[in-house]
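Handoff note, outgoing to incoming analyst
You'll be picking up this chain. Sequence as last confirmed:
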Amino acid sequence: MKKIVLTFGLIAGVILSVLMVITFALRDQIGFDNGMVVGYTTMVASLLMVYFGIRTYRDTVLGGHIRFWPAVKVGLLISLIATVFYVATWEAMYYRFMPNYMKEYAAHTIEKARKGGASEAELAKQQKEFDEFEVMYRNPLINIGFTMLEPLPIVLLVTLVSAGLLSRRKEGEPVSPDGIPVS
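Most recent structure output, in case you need it:
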């Protein structure tokens, strides 16, 4: 299992990192408003390796049969490796190439709120929240923590769907009346 998890985790991580760097290079064309959509789309694309990793483990190691929870375990391990790549890439880019990212994002968001008719009091409150977050985000441990949380919804979704699609019980394996395999 280690080799499969490592192989597919590394592939997913490299894909995720390369796509993040490309997205960063195109950030002026993509813009802040579309950045989240592009970012999560690249996460889904790279985390397709979770599906292929679970399938490879099922077919090559387990003889074509895997239960749901062992499949989830394999998927989460692959995702963990990919997430480490994601975090490392973000940290390098943020501290090396984008030290003003939070200020730029705050300015964009506040300008958008201003155009949307927000009052000066609302804008001041939003600016204060951004200032507090920026101070927090300068701490590398907090920055890493927030960055690790970003792919979590995609990781869980892709892993659960992949495990559900790929899990199979063995022929003749006993099942409970509601169809759940019994050990």
